[in-house]
Amino acid sequence: MKRLSIALITFVFVLSAGSVHAQKIKSGNFKALNGQTALNITYDYTSMAVGKYKNEKDYLEDGIADRNRKKPGSGDEWARKWANDKVDRFQPTFEQNLNKKLSDIGLTAKEGATDAQYTLLVKMVFLEQGFQSGVGMSRPAYINMVIDLVQTSAPDKILAEVVYDKIQSVNMMGYDYDTGSRVQSCFDRAGDNIGKLIVKNVSK
To answer: Domains in the chain, ordered, with CATH?
Structure first.
């Protein structure tokens, strides 16, 4: 039964891996990456809104207080999981799928590769967590982000900028009760999509 469930989830991910709702190259191109072998990545959540909250700080403060009122300590644990999911689940998934595509042009992207000539700045703009009630009511998660290619030594010089609107989580057919899993699938699709875009752009 466990093997069947895992297989079903995998099948749903493959089946649902459609296009991103909206993608736009706002400026520039990725030609500078032609011939490069390493690409640095940084992640920025400082301007991210979450659901009805204009900023992540207010979202976390309310979430912690509400959960701690119901069960002391549960809010603090929830906030730790929120922070850990970024570095343990979302970002690794993004990089894994990005690198699957970049391998076609001999390029590897990695957070902390500060010796690389170029850096990919992944800036989160908005996160909608969605929900799964298990009784026929659900809403997918989605993220909005801006991805800039810059010179590592001159991050203010933007060589390319891509805007993503509503990168939606895949339909897991009732298996997406965990918020982290829904958001992770958004990062999964984002990494795949930007990887395809870079390879296509560089290979022209």
So the answer is: 2-55+90-203 (3.40.50)
